[in-house]
Amino acid sequence: MYRYSVDNAVTYTSEDLVLFRESPFACWMERLHLENPDHGIPPDAGTTEPGDTMTRQDDVAESLLAEGKQVTLINWDIREPQRRSQTLQAMRDGVDFIVNGQLALGPLSGSANLLMRTSGFSELGNFLYIPCDTQGKTTIHSAFRLCFLADLLHGLQGQLPPKMLVIRGGDLLPLTTDDHIYHYRAVKQRFMNAMRDFRKHRMPDPAESSHFGRWADCANEVMRQRAERDEIENSPLKSESEAVADNEPLQPEAGEETLQVQLQNPIQARLATGRGLKVSGTLADQARALQVQVVPDVETSEPQASAEAADPELDNLSFIGREPSSMLEDMDAGFDVDCIDDSDYALPDSEVAVKPVPRPFSNSLNTGDDFDR
What we know:
Elements: E1 2-3, E2 10-11, H1 14-22, H2 24-35, H3 58-66, E3 71-73, H4 80-93, E4 97-105, E5 108-122, E6 125-133, H5 142-157, E7 163-168, E8 171-176, H6 181-196, H7 216-233, H8 236-247, H9 266-273, H10 283-289, H11 307-310, H12 325-333
Parallel strand pairs: 3-4, 6-7
Antiparallel strand pairs: 1-2, 4-5, 5-6, 7-8
Helix pairs in contact: 1-2
């Protein structure tokens, strides 16, 4: 990643996405180093800043020219804005091959070893371009880097290249773009979200990265401090000290006094102790609310008012336990209770051997004619 010379905007290359895919921590550190070079965290000794792995391919252009192909060679040494504009112009002209091109769209920019024209339809006309890798060395990231260029071509020509080519001397390995582009775009989405939400105080967890780039010393120090902190928090000595502290009785605060007064009702008790008292109003109002009335001597005092008069807020609860008799009478009058006639079960005046005849069970059944027999 670097700052574009035209507008000083942070610009990302395929190497940044490759690094993010393997180590979000190292990618975050590189962004921190770009934003604030004086952050005070030194990189590992003997390491260098990550750069573009793409190299100039002038020899490829010479080989194609020798075969009579139409080739546009972009000067590798000119500034990036000129390389971008010359690459776009060559694409609009429809040349067969573009060597050392520079594709850019938004905050993404990358060098293209070779762009090859092929048949198809795009915003350029009845042709489109596909990316080719001519680096001479295949890595596990070769297809991923080609997807970076294919995605840029999609935005520039309005059509996703159907194929990507890996060229190694006389060997040609075609790759179907759909087999790789979706994984790339998922990583790209996560990368762009991480860069958009970048904060200097939100370091990713180093343990979630497969390596640490040139910041291994920093990552190891972070994980060491975390392990020591966890060990202290989970130590038995700390658990015992916390248990002892929990078992110690709470001491009353200094200046707290017990009021030895007889209060007229619970409301005055709350006022005297200050517990459950809602503080509001001016200081004078609060002082009046906290005044405690001490019960005078029993011999000289008059009978106190009932609790209901002292607590008018409890008047709404006076109905409890005092159901009006008239209401009960009305309730009794509203029900028709069907009781069994006790005469059916009356005992005879004298002892007889015959048992009382019970009430037939069929009397309680509905045996009307409307029932099916």
